[in-house]
């Protein structure tokens, strides 16, 4: 080991800057020996020491940890998940796989579920941001503050497409994080994460931004920040800070073959997350723009075929008939090179750009067609998706149904010939499940009062006591279902 250290030090003598960066001001090299302040007895002459021409200093993350750590929270969840099982047969038993193959419709059993995550306070009255996957399928969500106080949280809303969830706890005058912007961040910038990896609360790790606008499989609506910050299970939902102490992202995913950190972590840009938070708080759902096209990446061969100077842009492979793009005059084979004034370098750049546009807005696009640029205007429609802002309602502090609902889309309203209603997407263990409410039901009214928004449903539940009558549309029938909230 000593010989290894000696050889390393000898090499570092020839690179003074590396010595300063690695060991700091408390060490220097004397000949080929590492010396610290405590061992030094006499000044080192210029003949035996190569003086560095400059010093490299690392940033001090203590101020960020001290000023922002109080607004970072630990989140624990409990619930049940339904899994296929065979009574008396261990799922790890080889016989289980045999039964599963020949009996695909195995009975569903409920298995207890516990999870840990992180989050951060964005409003002093108790609004907390975290990942949607942290609170997914949770019956009870508990938020623990840095001062050890614990609160059962209400899930205001979740957006699975961006993996953002908004929680609310019953507290006031809480510390909050400083919100920044991803737009002001650059590749190579230092960043700091605070969270609860493996349950170790308020753990601080640091690294740099490795890349921006990363597209991940099945995550087409988020231009992720890639970092090399150490992120592990339990960090999910925690904040990513810049050196100004501003949150620029929500730590969400890692790339790993082992399940643990391997140098690649990804964060949701805070600009995306705050837009989701605002929509969920104001309307209970998330609206996204839609063009009605399918696109694919451009490689060098395609670029040559289309006469492009470089393999950039989004190649239109198919167009929805009578959709926004069709009405605007786009054609298969067009290459979209800019959208709303922003250039398209990769095809993965386009979906988040379109999704961020308010439905109904008209934007300008540039396409490459027949080796010429062509300008078009398109009126962006609203994305119709079952994941457009489902808002979960489990809440131990207020009356709760234990369901996940969302407003009907315009297409669903037309199909059902309704003017308003809330579609039940998921039913957790609770009052609604006990009363027979099912996924696919449409809640029309509470005790005779019509409901058309998630917020209105909460208000009606709060003011109507422990017993309510829900008017529900199931199939083509409308029925009243009595629910005892308790």
How would you characterize the overall build of this protein?
The chain is α+β, with helices and mostly antiparallel strands. Helices cover 19% and strands 37% of the residues. The protein contains 12 helices and 31 strands. Strands 7-6-3-4-5-9-8 form a 7-stranded antiparallel beta sheet. Strands 25, 26, 27, 28, 29, 30 and 31 form a 7-stranded antiparallel beta sheet that branches. Mean pLDDT is 80; it is low at 1-49 and 386-398.
Descriptive labels:
486 residues; Thrombin, subunit H; seven-stranded antiparallel β-sheet; 12 helices; 31 strands; 37% strand; disordered N terminus
- Strand line-up of the largest beta sheet: 7-6-3-4-5-9-8
Q: Predict the CATH topology of the largest domain.
A: Thrombin, subunit H
The oligomeric state of the chains shown is single chain
DSSP helical segment count: 12
CATH architecture of the largest domain: Beta Barrel
Summarize the structure.
With 486 residues, this protein is of the alpha+beta class.
